[in-house]
Amino acid sequence: MVVSWNLPGRLLAWRILPIGVFLIGTWPCVAEGGPIVYEFAAKDTLTPVELNHGDAVRFTLRNGEVRTLVLEATQAEILERPPGLPGIVYGFTCRLQVDGHPLTIQRYVCTQESFYEPLVVNGLRVWFDMVLDTFRKIPMRYPHQGNLRQRPHKDARFALQDATLPICPQEMRPWYPNEQGWISIADCYNGEDCWMGPYLGQACHGGLDINHQRGTPLWAPIDFDDQWYFNSLKAGHNNNRWRGIRIWPGGDVWALQTHHLIELHVPERTPLKA
Fold first, then answer.
1. Whole-angstrom distance, CA of residue 145 vs CA of residue 143
2. Could you read off the pLDDT of 193-202 as tens digits, one per residue?
3. Which domains can be identified in the chain, with CATH numbers?
4. Are 17 and 256 spatial neighbours (Cβ–Cβ below 8 Å)?
5. What does the alpha-carbon distance between residue 84 and residue 201 come to, in Å, rounded to a whole number?
6. Strands 89-98 and 66-80, how do they pair?
7. Residue 269 zone, left/alpha/beta (φ > 0; ψ -120 to 50; rest)
């Protein structure tokens, strides 16, 4: 089994919402009363999938080869409570069988390692996003209906892609000025507010907060088919919250959003070019 680290393009400051990615593929093969085997084929965009213990994914690469991934176990633990700071560091793991070979993946959240690169296993790029065990130890911030999709419905959540393909069908451009080309965890609010970071050490935040000076410009990282404020100060909300939608040729929908905007320089409900 060949395992390597690879990331063809870093995701910067945008939030790719789990609720905004829709799967277009075959229906899973269900064993009555037992584990589920999901069948997917490589496409131009990422393939998100949630698995329970014992479930499997058969993923067909562009060259026709099939990779089989089986989820055996998951775990989450609070690892550190820094003295004098309102935060925690937690970790989560999964134990897999990939084409019959054992593989354990460990993730850390609320450290610089939060901005991890995916594994490449025999030509299959694997993002290990979250486990349900986390939410048995740390509650969710804002646990209302719109955010419930951030909490996995099954034991673990992954995203998969053929490693020969880019993350995005379109070349991604920066969302905001970032000369260093990477994100420091120290810039994520108090250093704890990365994706699923434990906000104030109390609850998982389904977003990525990056501290900016007032007036920092934001640009379109990809083309958007539609975009608008879904919350606004003008409408009486406490924040200007913006969302952009891109529908890819294969039918997948990406929803990217950002909050705390001061003003839009283009009219709502008009397409944007990167």
1. 7
2. 999 999 888 8
3. 3-162 (2.60.98), 185-258 (no CATH)
4. yes
5. 12
6. antiparallel
7. left
